[in-house]
């Protein structure tokens, strides 16, 4: 038979036939409705179970493990009985959303995913929605109940099954009320993701509970306004806010007026954005009850923030300014700089770079520098050992161990140097502090609170999160979302009394210079940071000037939020050096692993390698002729300087070095620039200023 009738088709027990079977023979058991239904469910790949007539629970011992198929189905369903179906993996992931109250039935189609398998009974049509999910393998529960905290009545159940087993009485049965349980839509359950179905049930339950406690019609306006404020404050869009509030009103017996709800939500949003008075959680809790309000917030994945918990009731004023009294400046506690005048206790810092430059390698080397108290990278970092926690959300644990081991090999660090001060987690240990769904992005306060407590317990001084994009699931271009995430990390730093460093990617720059403005996504992250460090890979031109071969091995750090980048030779430079671990098992042939380790690198000094008396030699050479200051001129002074000092000016590195020498000698009074007439123009030449005597 066709198992996908039109949506809404109602089937009676006589409609529940199976595909063509041999005609009943004399002496065969009667084809009861339960037997017909059980055969139908076996054909669908579901596991039926007999239940006493007008009952809802099986009485057979060990029923979760009972296997019924065509070979033995008549043995179990030959007499009058109800038919249940075991949910979960044994029935191809069958999952049942059981709607227990009228409000849930009324709103289900507006919140739950569409499905072609729905059933109920005369007094409660469409009260069971069926889906195919993997919830039984991901949830250690037979069912998830959504109850009203005021009377503990069930609003709806998400019936899962799995190891703890759950079953539902299906069509082919008689309800305790003597009503026939029958199909409203006799098609296939819709396959949906576990998270989608759980989220949908959470939102449906929240709307149902709101509807049950909206109060009398005359008091509903304030409740609706408070609900608008609550939803908007937690990042919901105006449209979603209006729809949710409107559906809750509809379930409470009101009329659906989408245009009016949208206008009200937009008006509330305008007030909120303008800094006006808008109701929120306190007013909502006052109207529906604190337990109800908190249960709704939990289902919507909202955190009731400290501000909302202590917000005053209308008419009270608890906001007060601080009166400034000038203390003795010497008694003001100094800022608690932890490392390199960049990481400060109680604040967030950002390291910014494109992929592949070396930002993870740098922060891991700095972590060991802080944990050992040694200035490994020669940046002037403090010498007191710190407790550092590196949470790398890109690499697995074994790779992080290789990288830390390579750093220790290069800098000759052993376990006694580190003690227990270096903590780490990998991509295998998920750290996501937000949850994003159709309603928007919310902060997962339980995770944030747990992290703060762990930071305190471990006495962590510095937490490094790498990369930032992996610690949240919000839209990275949404400034409101990223602002909440960044300020949450600031709150973590303050509450835990540590520095937090967030390692972040840049957008595609196509060879451009990394600046604060180059950060990928919304600018709210760098705006909220105490400092922003930009890493730039050495360019080919800089490599030529420095006289190095592979420019990709070198990068510089500019620790300035304003990004007033110093010249290349005045930046803090680092080099990536390959360190061999020697990790080839005895008796085996192999190359083992080599890992890139960051080490300090200094830009070559122009005076390096100059012979004794070089300055006087140059002065004598230039004093005997006429030499231009312009490096583009054929009679540029640099050619003569290079000749007498043995510096090859035919290549860029040599030219760069000579230019730096000449500039330094002019600034130091060894040479001077004078203007002369040349081909009818006034052009600059170089002459001896004061003869060098030392």
Detailed description of the structure:
The protein is of the alpha+beta class and 694 residues long. The protein has 21 helices and 27 strands. Helix 3 crosses helix 5.
Q: Give the rounded overall mean pLDDT.
A: 85
What proportion of the residues form beta strands (DSSP E)? Answer: 15-25%
Number of strands: 27
Order of strands, widest sheet: 16-15-19-20-14-21-22-23-24
Q: What proportion of the residues is helical, as a percent range?
A: 25-40%
- What is the general shape? elongated
In terms of topology, how is this protein built?
Elements: H1 33-43, E1 47-51, H2 73-77, E2 82-86, E3 94-99, H3 102-111, E4 117-121, E5 124-132, H4 135-138, E6 143-147, E7 154-159, E8 167-169, E9 173-174, E10 180-186, E11 190-191, H5 194-212, H6 220-233, H7 238-251, H8 258-273, H9 281-288, H10 290-299, H11 306-309, E12 337-339, E13 343-344, E14 348-353, H12 359-372, E15 388-392, H13 397-411, H14 415-418, E16 422-425, E17 434-437, E18 440-443, H15 445-457, E19 462-466, H16 479-496, E20 499-505, H17 524-528, E21 531-537, H18 540-546, E22 554-559, E23 572-580, E24 594-601, H19 614-623, E25 627-628, H20 637-645, H21 652-667, E26 671-678, E27 681-688
Parallel strand pairs: 5-11, 14-20, 14-21, 15-16, 15-19, 19-20
Antiparallel strand pairs: 1-2, 2-8, 3-5, 3-7, 4-5, 4-10, 6-7, 9-10, 12-13, 17-18, 21-22, 22-23, 23-24, 25-27, 26-27
């Amino acid at each position: 038979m066709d198992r996908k009738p039109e949506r809404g088709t109602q089937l009676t027990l006589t409609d529940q036939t199976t595909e063509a079977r041999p005609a009943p023979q004399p002496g065969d058991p009667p084809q009861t409705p339960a037997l017909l239904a059980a055969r139908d469910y076996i054909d669908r790949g579901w596991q039926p179970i007999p239940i006493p007539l007008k009952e809802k629970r099986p009485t057979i011992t060990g029923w979760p493990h009972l296997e019924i198929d065509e070979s033995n189905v008549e043995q179990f369903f030959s007499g009058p009985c109800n038919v249940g179906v075991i949910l979960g993996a044994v029935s191809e992931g069958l999952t049942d959303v059981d709607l227990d109250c009228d409000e849930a039935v009324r709103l289900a189609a507006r919140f739950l995913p569409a499905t072609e398998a729905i059933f109920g009974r005369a007094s409660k049509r469409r009260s069971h929605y069926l889906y195919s999910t993997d919830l039984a393998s991901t949830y250690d529960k037979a069912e998830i109940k959504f109850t009203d905290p005021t009377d503990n009545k069930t609003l709806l159940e998400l019936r899962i099954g799995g190891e703890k087993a759950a079953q539902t009485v299906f069509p082919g049965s008689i309800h305790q009320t003597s009503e026939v349980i029958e199909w409203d839509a006799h098609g296939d359950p819709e396959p949906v993701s576990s998270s989608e179905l759980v989220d949908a049930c959470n939102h449906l339950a929240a709307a149902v509970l709101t509807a049950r406690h909206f109060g009398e019609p005359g008091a509903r306006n304030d409740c609706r306004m408070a609900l608008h404020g609550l939803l908007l404050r937690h990042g919901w869009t105006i449209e979603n806010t209006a729809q949710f509030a409107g559906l809750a009103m509809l379930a409470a017996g009101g009329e659906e007026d989408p245009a009016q709800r949208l206008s009200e939500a937009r008006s509330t949003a305008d007030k909120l954005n303008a800094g006006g008075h808008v109701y929120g959680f306190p007013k909502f809790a006052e109207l529906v009850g604190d337990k109800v309000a908190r249960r709704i917030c939990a289902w919507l994945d909202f955190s009731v923030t400290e501000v909302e918990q202590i917000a005053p009731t209308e008419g009270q004023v608890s906001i007060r300014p601080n009166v400034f009294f000038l203390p003795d400046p010497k008694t003001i506690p100094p800022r608690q700089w932890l490392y390199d005048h960049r990481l400060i206790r109680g604040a967030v810092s950002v390291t910014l770079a494109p992929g592949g430059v070396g930002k993870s390698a740098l922060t891991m080397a700095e972590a060991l520098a802080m944990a050992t108290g040694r200035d490994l990278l020669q940046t002037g970092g403090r010498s007191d050992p710190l407790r550092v926690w590196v949470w790398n959300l890109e690499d697995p644990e074994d790779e992080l161990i290789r990288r830390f081991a390579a750093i220790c090999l290069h800098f000759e660090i052993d376990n006694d140097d580190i003690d227990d001060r270096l903590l780490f987690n990998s991509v295998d240990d998920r750290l996501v502090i937000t949850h994003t769904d159709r309603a928007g992005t919310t902060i997962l306060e339980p995770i944030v609170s747990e992290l703060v407590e762990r930071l305190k317990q471990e006495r962590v001084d510095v937490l490094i999160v790498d990369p930032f994009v992996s610690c949240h699931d919000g839209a990275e271009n949404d400034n409101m979302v990223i602002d909440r995430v960044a300020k949450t990390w600031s709150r973590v730093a303050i509450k835990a009394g540590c520095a937090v460093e967030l390692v972040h990617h840049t957008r595609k720059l196509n060879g451009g210079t990394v600046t604060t403005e180059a950060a990928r996504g919304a600018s709210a992250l760098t705006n909220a940071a105490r400092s922003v460090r930009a890493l730039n890979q050495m360019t080919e031109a800089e490599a030529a000037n420095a006289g190095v071969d592979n420019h990709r091995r070198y990068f510089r750090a500019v620790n300035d939020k304003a990004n007033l980048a110093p010249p290349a030779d005045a930046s803090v430079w680092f080099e990536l050096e390959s360190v061999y671990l020697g990790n080839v098992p005895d008796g085996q042939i192999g190359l083992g692993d080599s890992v890139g380790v960051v080490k300090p690198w200094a830009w070559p000094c122009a005076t390096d390698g100059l012979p004794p008396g070089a300055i006087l030699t140059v002065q004598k050479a230039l004093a005997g002729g006429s030499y231009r200051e312009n490096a583009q001129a054929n009679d540029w002074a640099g050619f003569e300087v290079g000749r007498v000092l043995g510096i090859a000016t035919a290549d860029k590195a040599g030219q760069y070095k000579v230019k730096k020498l000449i500039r330094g000698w002019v600034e130091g009074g060894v040479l001077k620039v004078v203007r002369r007439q040349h081909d009818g123009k006034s052009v600059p030449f170089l002459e001896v200023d004061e003869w060098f005597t030392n």
